[in-house]
């Protein structure tokens, strides 16, 4: 005869729910989060004082500044990054992007990249001749988003903090 313990049943349901949430997170998480180099690259990008011109950034993104469509894509990317920077500052009031956890900055950069698959994804053939989109080189191609986010965040802080 088995004995039913409501507390053990509750614990089992809770553990099952936790496992489901964790599995869902890892299934949806970007595989590159498991590498240490991501945080190092993010930290390096945020902490260095490098300055890139618009022309250099467009070249890194493989965009040609003489092409009107490329200029529109670049302007759209900057607009998304600016809106994201503003949202982050308004909701956190952190003075620099350095104060954010590196994994959060990585995640935001990946989310911005998802809005521009033509810049950050390439088709990869699966079996049977099907194609799917995949990251070019994981985060190494997306450090430029982190750079742009750092620049725009700094501008947003300057503008909104001076309004106080």
Automatic annotation (TrEMBL):
Superkingdom of origin organism: Eukaryota
Protein name: Uncharacterized protein
Organism: Spathaspora passalidarum (strain NRRL Y-27907 / 11-Y1)
